Structure formats: C-alpha cells, structure tokens
C-alpha cells in the first residue's frame, strides 16, 4: 500500500473528515489532445537534481520544507475564511456526539477517543448496556496524552493485539499495545495488563519497527520484526518469524519461518478458538499473492520445510471459522464438475477445513459475481455468515446459514441457505460480528453491529441478531449540515476505450447545471479499494453549504465491480485509471455541472498519483489540485520505504519494458517547461514512513524550477494519515478548503 488495510484506514480519514499522445474528448465535447508524453528529466537517480530532498530528516531538506510551509501558510491563512474553516473543522472533529467505534474484548467494548481535552486520545471501555445509553460511563484504560507527557514522547495510537483466554484463564488479560512516534507505521510494542490497566513490568516489548506479532500463549509470541541485517524484505517488512518465549533473549528465539527478501513480508496468525487451535504462517509474495501454511503442532518449533502447505491459487485468500474455510478468488478457478465449468474471479467459496487439510476440498460457491454485483466483505457470527455485496456501488447484505443433510444422506446434500436482509439503502453498510469464539456460553454469539450512511444521511449504528428482522438503534450521528434541497445522482461517463464509468454527484441546495458550480472531483482507483458513499460533516460545512458540488468517481483500479475492475487498470494498463478520471471530468464540463476553471480534483496516496497524472496529462481541464501524501516519482518509488511492495500494482521501473509503461504517466517525469499548470496544493508528512515524503517534495521543487505556481505543506507529524491529532487535522483541512475556495470560488 500503501498495505491494503492501511490504505483503507487512511481513506476513511481523508473521506469521512473530511506513450503516444492520447486523444480524448475536450471540455466542449470536441477532440482535444492530451499533453504529449515527455521522455526526459529525470529517468534515473543520477539525472535527478532534487534527490537531496529524499533525505527525510536532513537539515537542508527540512530547511526547504520550513520555507515552503511558511510561504504556503502565509497565502492560505490570510483570507478571513481560513479562521472560520479551521474552527468549523475542529468543532466537527471534537464533536462529543459522534459515534464511538467499538471493538469487543471479553465482556466489554473498547474505544479509542480523541477530543479537545484529549488530543492524543483515550483508550477506554464500557459495557454493552452502558453503550446503549446516550451518555455511557466510560472507564479509561490508557490516557495517551498523560503517557506521552510522562515519557517525553509524541505517542500516536495504532491499536492493540490482545491474547484471548488460554490455559485456564477466564478473562482477557494481556495485550500488546502498538504505539507510534508521530504517526509513523513503525511502532513500539509494549505488553499491557487489561485488568491492572498498566504496562507489565519486564513484559514483552519490541523497539520501533514495522513488526508482526501473534500470541501463541501467555508466555510465547510469534514475532516478525527488524532483527538486524537480512531480517527485512526489500519492502521494509519482516522477513523472518521467530518463536519468542518470555524471559529469553529475542536474539536467541528460534526461527520458525522465513520469506524471501523479494517478498513483501512474512506474517503469522493464531486462532485460539477452543477445539480449533490453528497457527498460520504466510509469505506475501507480492501485494496480491501469498503462500500459506499451517503449523498444526504448535508444541514444537518445526523447520519451515515441515509446515503443511495449504493448496490454493497464489492470488486467492483463505480464512478459517470453526469447521469451515472460506476462499476468496481473484482469478477463475476450475470447478470439478462434468461440465468443465469454473468459479469466476470474485467468487467466495467454502469447504470443510478438514477436507482442505486432507487435500480433497469440495468447494461450494457462496457468492458468484455478476456484471454489477461484487463481494465487498463478510463477517461470521457463531452459526451464520453475513455477506456485504455491492450492486452498482450500493451495499446489500445477505445472511447465510448451513443446513446439514438429513440423517443418513450423503454430506453433499447439505446446503447453504441465504436470506437477503432488509436494511437501509442505497448507501454504504458495514457489519461487525460481536461473537467471541472463545466462549461457548457467549450471549452475543449471534449479534452483530450494522452501520449505515450515505452522502446526505449521518451514520447510524444498529444492533442486529441473526434470524431477526428488528434491529436496535444504538447510536445516531448528529446532522452537521442542512441537507434540505440537496440531491445525489449516480451518472456514467464513457472512458477512452468505451468503458462506462460510474460516478456520484452531490448537489448543494439550489445548484443548477449552469456550468459555473465550484466542483471537487475525488478519486482513488487502485489496490481494489472501493469508493462508496459516506457522510462528511467537514464537506458539509466547508463545501456543500457554501455552494460546492462534490463528485466521487468509481474508476478502474478500484474494487467497485470486483477483481476484474481492479485488474483492468494495473501495470501496463494503469493509464486506464487516469483515462477514466479524465473522462468523468470531461463529462462534468460537457453536462454543465462546471467548467475547467471551477473544477478541482483531490486524492491521497495512490489517489495523489491519480491527480498528479491527471493534471500533467490535462492541465487545461482543472482549476485546482489537492495532492495528498502522494506517489509521484514512479522511477524511484520502489526504492523508497514500502514502495517495493506495490510493484504488483504498478510494475518494476528497473525493467525497461515496464518503465516504458510507467514513464508515460509518472507525474514527476512528465512535468514540462512551457505548460500552464494550475496552482497545485501538495501535502505530506515528515513522519510518513509508507509513502516517502520525497515524492511530494521533489514534485514541488520541479514545479518551482519550471516557474509553475505551487503551494506545499508538510506536517512534521501524522504519518500516512497526514496528522496526529484533531488540532493538526483541523489545520490541514482548513488549509485545503481555503485553497479550494481561493482557486475555484473567488475566495468566498
């Protein structure tokens, strides 16, 4: 990723808070040439005059950052609008009535919370009965502000890995807390006692690294971390997994598994479900392919060669639940039937876990995609499987249950029955089961949380139960803007190759298609990540209520229509993502939604690459560009931080044939003298250890070298999310909206 999950998390933050010359349709519907592809400057490190800016903490580079920050803030904070925007953003972010997201650990619900009084945040817990109340009583488990002050660290919360009850324990007692300095992906791990609400003296701890850990037992961990030279992959993630026993030196812990240096990572997981103890080890060959093993006898540290290999396609993923195993397909799999058919890519299959381990799985299809329907995700209760499905980018939910065969009938006569659930829509639904598989007397075994939102409907959180049609409303987010008179449309643009590309248009009250609306086009288009409707109080206050139109493009490279939609725009075909995005922009102009000088684009991470490619190919089409934590120098991306892990998405620029694909869209290489670029706003974070800040720095330096207008802001903290606390987020968001109104709305 951008690791896939990490990218999704970053997107939640960004959204909820806020070759040969190509021919494409111009703004007036006529044929207009794209900017010709450049073939010079720079193609290798030795040709790059701005390479020194890749020295993240080098004083000359930081001096350059400080100068650019001062210049940009002087421009963007000058309008009176900035102060108003910042206050509104801070109010939204610190709203005490927003829904606390929860995770069940034992009998309690845990939440991480930030507000004006707790800028770094509280890890806290409550019961379900209390959570039902409008004002629950919360028990603080860890105060991150107090911890940081006491230790002189700028800690940022990155989660907890907790040990289920084992070996006779009746309660969850131990966790490994993931603490980041300034928001980086690399974390410090420290053992924490949930009952005492304190760190364990002399407990397990790991220094700052991109570690992978799993509890084997109360006194043993499976650990992947930076053990020294040769222990990391080219992507900077763990290559070696060791079995670490409490009280013994980590350096002496036996190696149980190794990946190859060219792999993305090695990882481990443990399923502690009673009667189904499983230990899994995996090597991620690339971002989409893996080789998986089960270590059935966890009592002895077997050499890796004796692990049981799990037979699956390399690009399929497996997950276990009690007696069952699910397999999600990214490519077609032949079906063992007389007709010689196959399960298409995007299918979800199920088999008995024992049959898979015996080498004779009988896979059954639980979900088969169609032209408009794709699988978005799933969650298990004790006895039911809940599927979330996208149909033309609107979520639906199905509940599946296993109906065993009649007594004496062959096992093949059992079937999975399904029931569509009547839930709010069209919009975005997400589910999370509350089932604790470690308790056979679990009163919440069949309960799950359901959240719903769309562009105009604040988030709601409901409690559901399998087999029931009535759901309990637990929480409802407050309305932060007046949606009266607003409307949402789903439209389709035609891309360069004839593909229909859907997009959403969110109209403010009273807006008409007069060609003059300030319009912001958002996109991502990578790593099979779907852009689904979301409610944004920040957009409401800063954009909609001031007359701005929001457009969200569902371009290829994303996951809105399953693996095929993603795979249509990877490697040699990545340009299709940019063709789709440009086609949506042209459609907005052609249909009278806006005009180029009032059309802005925004994207982060891979989306930053998207808007960078779009503006270098069609600078005439946009009046503003917000480019957040971006990839931009695609000649060197694989050499910077986690970049090598993304070559399955973009290709390897060290291979001449693949560099020939990449150079045609790489924004840094495609900047050319004599082109009238709109003024860009490029943002990043010094502490982003996923997408290197050198991408953003060098792009801005090159624009300045060309005499092009550009603004730059680099937050010292924040990691890949761009900010470490609500005050930093509010400031960054206010800068972005101030810029957008300055560029697109006459500074109103």
From TrEMBL:
Signal peptide: 1-24
Alphabetical list of InterPro entries matching this protein: AB_hydrolase_fold, Pept_S9A_N, Peptidase_S9_cat, Peptidase_S9A, Prolyl_oligopep/macrocyclase
Residue span(s) of domain Peptidase S9 prolyl oligopeptidase catalytic: 543-745
Entry's transmembrane regions: none
Keywords assigned: Hydrolase, Protease, Serine protease, Signal
Taxonomic superkingdom: Bacteria
A Pfam family assignment: Peptidase_S9_N
All copies of domain Peptidase S9A N-terminal, residue ranges: 42-272
Protein name (Swiss-Prot/TrEMBL): Prolyl oligopeptidase
């Amino acid at each position: 990723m951008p690791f896939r999950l990490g990218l999704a998390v970053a997107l939640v933050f960004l959204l909820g808070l806020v070759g040969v010359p190509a021919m494409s349709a111009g703004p007036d519907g006529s044929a207009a040439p794209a900017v010709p592809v450049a073939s010079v400057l720079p193609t290798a490190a030795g040709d790059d005059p701005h390479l020194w800016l890749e020295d993240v903490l080098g004083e000359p580079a930081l001096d350059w950052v400080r100068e650019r920050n001062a210049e940009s803030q002087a421009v963007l904070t000058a309008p009176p609008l900035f102060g108003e925007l910042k206050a509104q953003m801070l109010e939204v972010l610190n709203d005490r009535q927003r829904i606390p997201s929860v995770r069940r650990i034992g009998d309690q619900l845990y939440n991480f919370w930030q507000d004006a009084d707790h800028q770094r945040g509280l890890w806290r817990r409550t019961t379900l009965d209390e959570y039902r109340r409008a004002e629950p009583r919360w028990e603080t488990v860890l105060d991150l502000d107090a911890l940081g002050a006491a230790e002189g660290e700028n800690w940022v919360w990155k989660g907890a890995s907790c040990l289920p009850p084992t070996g006779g324990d009746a309660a969850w007692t131990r966790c490994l807390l993931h603490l980041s300095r300034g928001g980086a992906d690399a974390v410090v791990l420290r053992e924490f006692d949930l009952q005492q609400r304190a760190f364990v003296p002399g407990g397990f701890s790991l220094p700052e690294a991109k570690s992978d850990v799993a509890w084997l037992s109360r006194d043993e961990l499976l650990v992947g971390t930076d053990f020294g030279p040769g222990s990391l992959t080219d992507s900077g993630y763990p290559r070696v997994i060791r079995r670490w026993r409490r009280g013994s030196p980590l350096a002496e812990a036996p190696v149980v598994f190794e990946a190859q240096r060219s792999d993305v990572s090695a990882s481990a997981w443990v399923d502690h479900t009673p009667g189904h103890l499983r230990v899994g080890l995996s090597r991620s060959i690339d971002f989409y392919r893996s080789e998986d093993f089960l270590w059935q006898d966890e009592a002895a540290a077997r050499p890796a060669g004796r692990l049981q290999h799990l037979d699956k396609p390399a690009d399929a993923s497996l997950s276990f639940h009690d007696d069952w195993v699910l397999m999600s397909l990214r490519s077609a799999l032949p079906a063992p039937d007389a007709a010689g058919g196959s399960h298409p890519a995007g299918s979800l299959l199920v088999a008995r876990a024992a049959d898979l381990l015996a080498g004779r799985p009988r896979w059954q299809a639980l979900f088969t995609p169609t032209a408009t329907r794709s699988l978005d995700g799933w969650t298990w209760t004790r006895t039911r499987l809940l599927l979330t499905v996208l149909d033309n980018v609107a979520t639906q939910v199905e509940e599946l249950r296993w109906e065993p065969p009649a007594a004496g009938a062959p096992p093949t006569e059992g079937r999975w029955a399904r029931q569509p659930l009547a839930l709010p829509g069209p919009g975005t639904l997400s589910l999370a089961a509350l089932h604790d598989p470690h308790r056979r007397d679990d009163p919440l075994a069949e309960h799950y949380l359901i959240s719903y939102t769309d562009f105009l409907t604040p988030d709601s959180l409901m409690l559901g139960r399998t087999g029931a049609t009535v759901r309990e409303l637990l929480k409802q987010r407050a309305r932060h803007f007046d949606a009266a008179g607003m409307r949402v449309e789903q439209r389709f643009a035609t891309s360069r190759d004839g593909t229909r590309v859907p997009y959403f248009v969110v109209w403010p009250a009273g807006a008409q298609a007069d060609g003059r609306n300030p319009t912001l086009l958002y996109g991502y288009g990578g790593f099979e990540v779907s852009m689904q409707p979301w409610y944004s109080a920040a957009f409401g206050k800063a954009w909609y209520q001031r007359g701005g139109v929001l457009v969200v493009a569902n371009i290829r490279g994303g996951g809105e229509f399953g693996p095929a939609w993603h795979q249509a725009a990877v490697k040699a075909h990545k340009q299709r993502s940019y063709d789709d995005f440009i086609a949506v922009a042209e459609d907005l102009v052609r249909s009278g939604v806006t005009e180029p000088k009032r059309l802005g684009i925004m994207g982060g991470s891979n989306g930053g690459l998207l808007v960078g490619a779009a503006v270098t190919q069609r600078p005439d089409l946009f009046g503003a560009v917000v480019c957040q934590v971006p990839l931009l120098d695609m000649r060197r991306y694989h050499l910077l931080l986690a970049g090598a892990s993304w070559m399955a998405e973009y290709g390897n620029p060290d291979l001449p044939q693949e560099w020939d694909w990449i150079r045609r869209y790489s924004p840094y290489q495609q900047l050319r003298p004599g082109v009238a670029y709109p003024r860009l706003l490029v943002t990043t974070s010094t502490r982003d250890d996923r997408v290197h800040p050198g991408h953003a720095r060098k792009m801005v330096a090159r624009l300045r070298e060309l005499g092009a207008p550009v603004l730059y802001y680099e937050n010292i903290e924040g990691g890949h999310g761009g900010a470490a606390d609500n005050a930093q987020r509010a400031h960054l968001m206010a800068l972005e909206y101030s810029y957008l109104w300055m560029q697109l709305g006459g500074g109103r």
